[in-house]
Amino acid sequence: MNAAHSSPKPDIRLAVSAGIGSLSVAVLLTGMKVWALWQTGSLAVATSLADSALDLLMSAAALAAIIYAAKPEDDEHSFGHHAVEDLAVLAQSLLVLGSAGVIAWLSIGRLMSSTPPTLANETAGSAAMLLSMLITFCLVAWQSHVVRKTGNQVVAADRLHYLSDLLPSMGAILALQLSQRLGWTHADAVIGLIAAAYMIRSAAQQGGSAWNALMDHQADPEVIATVTRLADSWPGVLGWHDLQTRRSGSRNFIHLHVELDGTQPLKTAHDIGAGLRAAILRELPDSYVIIHKDVWQDHDHTSGEARNSVDR
Questions:
Q1: What angle do the packed helices 43-69 and 187-214 form, to 10 degrees?
Q2: Most confident range, picked from 30-39, 70-79, 145-154, 255-264
Q3: Cβ atoms of 131 and 28 closer than 8 Å
Q4: Per-residue DSSP letters for 215-242?
Q5: pTM for the full model?
Q6: Burial grade of 194 (CB within 10 A; 0-12, 13-18, 19 or more)
Q7: Is the CB of residue 103 less than 8 Å from the CB of residue 50?
Q8: For the chain, where do the domains classified as CATH 1.20.1510.10 start and end?
Q9: Which positions, given as ranges, span the membrane (predicted)?
């Protein structure tokens, strides 16, 4: 049986710097939006503030996850510490759902109120939100650089989250401008509802993915297709079976039984398995791969037979 771990991340310091940058930006944006909410009383700004406050928690969790997940395997954690990433994402998703529910409730209440809402200092609020968007763009640019250099999946997920944060900020600016220029004060509550729906959708997607990982759901179809393609075409592999996959955090776990000619030398069989394992790791970096070698027999197995269940 051959087991292989992917090489360590190219530069954990870069990934940590992205985590620190994300946390710092979240603190700054939260402070700016607290001021903007105090100045305007806008629910759309409140939605963006809630998102930034959650970013603060998420960025702190992401930084902790980057540091903890980078720890090597030990006697008590034979497969590493990557599951902490899924725990962090699941907790974040629950917080987002709660926040979105509060925003939706307040928006509905404002729409049903007989007294039109009053907003103030729309220009100052719009300027604060625009500045927050520029700061977010700068952070995303740095995170993109770190992802290109390190391939860190936690940083990549955090980057996508900050990209999605631009929508509530744009919605807040739109609501403030519609109120100031056209007097459409109810636009604030409508945009608040739209932003809340978007937050709920994002939280459901992220939480569902984290839940599947914690429940040892099989890896993405693209991962299974890649392993299947390589196993079908690898020289010396006469058949394969029992492909088992799961995902934990940013890491794929792949177990595969390959069938080889039992009359060939042990070294030849070893080289075939090692070559296939190396090919899988080239296309699926940061994976844990185990290949078990069986003697091929002329039975009902075919190279296309795969059972993508997980037995730990």
A1: 20
A2: 255-264
A3: no
A4: TTPPPPHHHHHHHHHHHHH-TT--EEEE
A5: 0.53
A6: middle
A7: yes
A8: 10-214
A9: 12-31, 89-112, 124-142
**Torsion angle of the four alpha carbons 266, 267, 269, 271, in this order, in degrees rounded to the nearest 10:** 160
Instruction: Assess contact for 103 and 43: CB atoms under 8 A.
Output: yes
- Residue 79's contacts (CB-CB under 8 Å, 6 or more residues apart) are 73, 248, 253, 288
* Tokens found for residue 226: 């890649």
Strand partners, 257: 241, 292
Homologous superfamily assigned to 221-295: Cation efflux protein, cytoplasmic domain (3.30.70.1350)
∠ Cα 76 80 85 (to 5°): 120
Tens digits of residue pLDDT in 244-275: 888 766 678 899 999 999 899 999 999 999 99
Per-residue model confidence as pLDDT tens digits over 189-228: 777 777 778 778 877 877 777 777 676 677 888 899 999 9
So what's the architecture of 10-214 in CATH? Answer: Up-down Bundle (1.20)
